Amino acid sequence: MRRALLAAAVVALALSFPAAAWAHATLNSASPATQSSVRVPPKEIRLTFNQPVTVIANAIQVLRADGAVLSGRARTTGGGKVVVASVSGLERGSAYTVRWRVTSEDGHSPGGVFTFGVGVKAPPPTDAVGASATTWRDDVARWALFAALAVLIGPLVLRLVVLRGDVPARLEHRFHLVTTVAAFLVIDVGIVAFVLRASNALQLPAVDTLYSDLQPFADKTRFGVAFLAMTLGFGVVALLLVAAWVTDRVVLRWPALVLALALASGLSLSSHQATEPNEAPFAPLADWLHLVAASIWVGGLVTLAFLVWPLAPGLRRRAFLGFSRLAVVLVGLMVVGGAYLALARLPSVSDLWTTTYGQVLVVKAGVVAVALSWGAMHHFVVRPRLEAGGDPDVRPSLIGEATVAFAVLLVAAALTNAAPPPVDNPAPAAARTTR
After folding, report:
1. Integer Rg of the chain from CA
2. What is the DSSP track for 380-419?
3. How far is CA 354 from the centre of its chain?
4. Does residue 211 sit in helix, strand or coil?
5. 51, 181, 184, 232: which has the highest count of C-beta atoms within 10 A?
């Protein structure tokens, strides 16, 4: 009962944060609509809010691709709930960026950004004029997301596939704890990663970003749609794991694992590379297989080093040998998937040392080589000793390999956020100034 109450409290607390943010002034509608395409150049920009707001002269800015401001002084109407700014000089066949910022009655200064096209498709808000490229904060957030996913998927696979049947109660309890916490971490870190990505385009202070209009990013971009699906989906995963813990029914972990593996595709479908116009046709699938294999590998190492070895000495041999056989398949998937992605995204060999993407890829390959060499030592040296009945103390070595594996995830996160060199020369979006 106490576990059930604790789980309910955690869920209620998690749901309370967005509710607090929604209590502030929010944008109800815009004309032209966010991420829309209009046939005739509009004469004004009109924003309607759910409560009266205060504005300054440049509360609305309409920007051309070169950064020129085409809007006039902003004013309020409709009892202070509507902000209007005249605009001139818009041309058919071009896309434009709208940046706005107001002050609500509670003193916060929410803002927003969206794009629209005149006779052309509107580019995503992440490509708005003035939007910055991803930063080291985005890399750290994605690395944390990869790490949380690995600590969720790896233990589930090891428990359900390698250690089928009964295990000691202490180990079972730890499996429940680790996987449940990891599921909630995936949700929380995903929210942070989403806000950081949106803030790059909003160009607002962190506090104001939380109260700003994130709707164009949530349902008008691929990464936003993936974020919503993953947040809801991993919420279901977390509830399944909580139910498995409370009822002590291991079978409930199976749908949690299958759903988590499926939801991981959201990271592949919404990565920087997946949104490139020249992305290879099977690259998202290869990226997903690469990510899933790496997550099981890293999470499995963590499980062996920090769960099985200290809590279940009698299961060490079985867990190590079973995971060793599985690791051969995982390494094969990682190598094949990584090689395909490298060939698809690097037009020439010289891109390895002349582009940032190629340089990061070289670093990743070096770290992976260290990790795989470590794993090969376990496979060809430790495994035969365990099969012969020995009991070598390999926990320090497992911790070392797991540490290197987490370093691989860090470099992979930086690589995912980097832009690969173009294979061809597609025309850039009309409103794009930076990546």
Report:
1. 25
2. IIIHHHHHTT-----HHHHHHHHHHHHHHHHHHHHHHHSP
3. 27
4. coil
5. 184
Chain centroid, CA 385 distance in Å: 41
Burial of 304 from C-beta contacts in 10 A (0-12 / 13-18 / 19+): buried
Residue range 136-417 in CATH 1.20.1630: yes
Q: What is the pLDDT of residues 191-244, one digit of tens each?
A: 999 988 888 888 887 677 878 888 888 888 888 888 999 999 999 999 999 999
Cis preceding linkage at 32, omega within 30:
yes
Q: 308 φ, ψ to 5°?
A: -65, -50
| String of DSSP letters for 83-126 | EEEEE----TTEEEEEEEE-EETTS---EEEEEEEESSPPPPGG
Say what the pLDDT of residue 347 is: 80
Q: Which residue ranges in the chain fall short of pLDDT 50?
A: 1-22, 425-435
* Main-chain dihedrals φ then ψ at residue 306, nearest 5 degrees: -110, -10
Q: 29-122 in CATH: which number?
A: 2.60.40.1220
The pair of structure tokens assigned to 270 is: 């919404």
Measure the CA–CA gap between 92 and 399, rounded to whole angstroms. 60
Q: Which residue has the tokens 């005149």?
A: 118
E strand or H helix at 60: strand 60-63
Gap between the Cα atoms of 73 and 400, Å rounded: 61
**Cα 352–Cα 355–Cα 357 angle in degrees, nearest 5:** 80
Asked whether the beta carbons of 253 and 160 are under 8 A apart, the reply is yes
Partners of residue 69 on adjacent β-strands: 63
**Which two structure tokens, joined as six digits, stand for 260?**
């988590």
Instruction: Kindly tell me the burial class for residue 301, based on how many C-beta atoms sit within 10 Å of its own C-beta (0-12, 13-18, 19 or more).
Output: buried
**Cα distances (angstroms) measured from residue 261 to each of 145, 241, 290, 291:** 14, 14, 12, 10
The CA–CA distances, whole Å, from 212 to 108, 111, 141, 208, 432 equal 9, 5, 20, 6, 22
Give me 100's structure tokens: 């706005």
Rounded Cα distance between 228 and 236, Å, is 13
Q: Which residues pair with 114 in a beta bridge?
A: 98
Q: Rounded to two decimals, what is the model's pTM?
A: 0.84
| Cα–Cα distance measured from residue 416 to residue 141, given in angstroms and rounded to the nearest whole number | 12
Would you state the pLDDT for residue 371?
87
Give the Å distances, CA to CA, from 30 to 20, 34, 166, 386: 23, 7, 58, 67
List the chain domain ranges: 29-122, 136-417
Please give the Cα distance from 249 to 267 (Å, whole number).
29
